[in-house]
Design brief:
By secondary structure, the protein is of the alpha+beta class. The protein has 2 domains: 150 residues, no CATH class; 59 residues. Helix content is 18%, strand content 37%. The chain has 3 helices and 12 strands. The strands form 2 sheets. Strands 2, 3, 4, 5, 7, 8, 9, 10, 11 and 12 form a 10-stranded mixed β-sheet that branches. Strands 1-6 form a two-stranded antiparallel ribbon. It starts with 5 loop residues before the first strand and ends with a strand.
């Protein structure tokens, strides 16, 4: 039985995906900067915070990220089929850094809309959709990659924590529970923040440096 999820779809004007001669694959789209706030407003996974502005990445920058995604996902330990996903890109400036944010979701998510909407021009946000809904923030200046992902239930949240402990050792910092949420932080070799919500599941943000 397919897990139910809530979809928040915000309207847009026109796509900015670049009339620069360099085309993107059919599964990719560069959204207009007006869609930036909606794209990073993820309700159940990590995403860039304190955004001061948004900008449009070039097709060549997006293509460079696309080439690295298989290795990035393999290193993160997630078995996700890229061929089944659609990916939206926007540039965001957060904490003084220019990042390119990628929002990925499976094609079947589009079947849940009552009206046909163009995902190439409209930010799509899904709550509690599972690990097939994920995001990456990439810093083109220093190859810093941030991976955001989530789990669907308490058992998966516990499994995610066990997997991180097995791979990276015990967390360096543990914050006391706040409103049913416990936070665990790893400082090295990657920066990882894992939040486990009691009785619900978990979300994590992992920063990787090449």
């Amino acid at each position: 039985m397919r897990t139910q999820f809530t979809v928040v779809l915000l309207a847009l004007l026109v796509s900015s995906s670049a009339a620069t001669g360099e085309s993107l694959p059919d599964h990719c789209a560069i959204l207009q900067i007006s869609q930036g706030p909606a794209l990073i407003r993820q309700c159940s996974r990590g995403s860039p915070t304190d955004a001061s502005s948004f900008w449009s990445p070039s097709p060549s920058q997006v293509l460079a990220i696309e080439q690295r995604l298989p290795e990035l996902l393999r290193k993160s330990g997630h078995n996700i089929k890229l061929s089944d996903s659609r990916r939206q890109y926007v540039g965001v400036t957060a904490h003084g850094k220019k990042l390119i944010y990628l929002n990925s979701f499976p094609g079947f998510a589009l079947d849940h809309f009552k009206e046909q909407r163009d995902w190439r021009t409209t930010a799509l946000t899904v709550c509690d959709g599972g690990d097939v809904f994920w995001g990456v923030a990439f810093d083109p200046a220093d190859n810093l990659q941030m991976i955001g992902y989530e789990t669907l239930d308490p058992a998966q949240g516990a499994s995610l924590k066990n997997w991180l402990v097995k791979k990276y050792g015990p967390p360096q910092h543990t914050d006391p529970p706040l409103q049913r949420t416990s936070t665990f932080v790893w400082d090295k070799p990657d920066e990882i923040m894992l939040s486990i919500i009691d009785g619900v599941g978990a979300s994590a943000m992992q920063s990787k440096q090449d």
